[in-house]
Amino acid sequence: MMKAAYFVHRDAARAIRPATAAGNQSGRGVRNSLRALALCVLLGLGATAPAFAETHVIIVGAAPPPLRVEHVPAHRRGYVWSAGYWHWSGHRHVWRRGHWVKARHGHHWASPQWEERDGRYYFRQGRWERGG
C-alpha cells in the first residue's frame, strides 16, 4: 500500500521567495521562482495521484453486519452493477444501496468490500481495475 507524501527541500523556501526591493528589480527572479513553484506542484501531483486512487482504506474494530439481499434491476447497456455495502459513517455502519456504474472499456469493476485481518476490519472503496 502506497502512502501519499510531500517532500520539500530545505532550500525550497529560498527558491520561491519573491525578489525584494534590494534584490533583483527586473522581475526575472520572480518569474523563475514561480516556474520553480509550478514545477514542484506538478511533480508532486503527478507522483501522488495514483496513490490517492489506490489507498482509500478505512480501518475499524467493529465488524460490518451481514450483507442485505438486494434485487438487482434489469441489465443496463454500458453499465455494471455495484452491489450494496455497509459504509462506516465514523460511528456506525450505514447501508449504501447498490447502483449502476458507467462501464469502462478494458476495465472491470471491483465492488466495495470489507476484509477482516487480525481482528480489525479494512474497507476498500469500489474501483476500476485493468483487464476483463
Spell out the helices and strands N to C: HHEEEEEEEEE
Q: Please indicate the count of domains.
A: 2
Number of separate helices: 2
Shape: flat
Regions with little confidence, pLDDT below 50 for 5+ residues: 1-24, 45-55
Structural classification: alpha+beta
Q: Strands across the major sheet, in which order? A: 1-8-7
Count the strands? 9
Beta-strand portion reads 25-35%
Please describe the biggest sheet, giving its number of strands, its sense, and whether it closes into a barrel: 3 strands, antiparallel
**Approximate helicity band:** 10-25%
Query: Would you tell me the overall average pLDDT?
Result: 73
Give the N-terminus to C-terminus distance in angstroms: 23 Å
Task: From the alpha carbons, calculate the radius of gyration and give it in angstroms.
Answer: 23 Å
